[in-house]
Design goal:
heterodimer, A: 117 residues, mainly beta, 11 strands, B: 4-stranded antiparallel beta sheet
C-alpha cells in the first residue's frame, strides 16, 4: 500500500510554455504533499509544502508565481511550472503523508524529468 | 536550524562485504525521526530504515541496521552482506515531529563491485 504516482514521468517543452505535473496518492488520503527539486548528483531541495484545501507554503528562494502548487483534493496535488525556461530543467519529486498509522511516513512519487528547450 | 551531514561522497566495496555509511546531524529538538533513503539509478526514493529519537534501541531491517548515538548526534547505516542491487545513492534525512518536513544530507554514492 501507500503508493504515490506522478504524471508525466518525463516532459520536454519549449521555452515560455507552462508545464503541469500531477502527484496522486493512489491508496491513501494525503493531507500533506511536498514538492522537491533535484539537480543531477545532488540532494533533494524542498520547494514547497501543500496541505489539502489551503495555500502552499514555499521555501525561501522559490518563486511562488513561477511554481504554482494546487492541492485541491486529498489525493491530488499539481505543480505548474509557468513560462518555463531552460534553467527550470530538473527532476521534480513529490511525496505525500496522510492519515496513516505512522504520521511521520512519507511516500515518494517516481519523479518527473523536465527538459525545457 | 537543523542540518544533516554526510561526509562520504562516494564509497565502493566488494559484493558480500559489510559497509557503513556515516551521518551526523545538528538539532536542538528532543523529538524527531531519522531516516535512510536509497535512490537507485531509476531515481525512485526508497525508504531503507527509520529511527525514532526517543527509542534507544537501534532499528534493523534485514541486512540494514543503524547505529544511533543520540548524544553524539550520529546516525550511521550498516549494510551487511552487500549485494549488487544495493548500488545507489544513499541519503540520510532528519524530520521534526512538528511539521514532518525532511531535511536531507548531501548523499553518499555507494558502489557494490562484483
Amino acid at each position: 500500500g501507500a503508493v504515490v504516482s506522478q504524471h508525466p514521468s518525463w516532459v520536454i517543452c519549449k521555452s515560455g510554455t507552462s508545464v503541469k505535473i500531477e502527484c496522486r496518492s493512489l491508496d491513501f488520503q494525503a493531507t500533506t504533499m511536498f514538492w522537491y527539486r533535484q539537480f543531477p548528483k545532488q540532494s533533494l531541495m524542498l520547494m514547497a509544502t501543500s496541505n489539502e484545501g489551503s495555500k502552499a507554503t514555499y521555501e525561501q528562494g522559490v518563486e511562488k508565481d513561477k511554481f504554482l502548487i494546487n492541492h485541491a483534493s486529498l489525493t491530488l496535488s499539481t505543480l505548474t511550472v509557468t513560462s518555463a525556461h531552460p534553467e527550470d530543467s530538473s527532476f521534480y519529486i513529490c511525496s505525500a503523508r496522510g492519515l496513516l498509522a505512522t504520521p511521520e511516513a512519507q511516500y515518494f512519487g517516481p519523479g518527473t524529468r523536465l527538459l525545457v528547450l | 536550524a537543523q542540518t544533516v551531514t554526510q561526509s562520504q561522497p562516494e564509497m565502493s566495496v566488494q559484493e558480500a562485504e559489510t559497509v557503513t555509511l556515516s551521518c551526523t546531524y545538528d538539532t536542538s529538538e528532543s523529538n524527531y525521526y531519522l531516516f535512510w533513503y536509497k535512490q537507485p539509478p531509476s531515481r525512485q526514493m526508497i525508504l531503507v530504515i527509520r529511527q525514532e529519537a526517543y527509542k534507544q534501541q537501534n532499528a534493523t531491517e534485514n541486512r540494514f541496521s543503524v547505529n544511533f548515538q543520540k548524544a553524539a548526534k550520529s546516525f550511521s547505516l550498516k549494510i551487511s552482506d552487500s549485494q549488487l542491487g544495493d548500488t545507489a545513492m544513499y541519503f540520510c534525512a532528519f524530520m521534526r515531529d512538528s511539521n514532518y518536513q525532511l531535511i536531507w544530507g548531501a548523499g553518499t554514492k555507494l558502489i557494490i563491485k562484483p
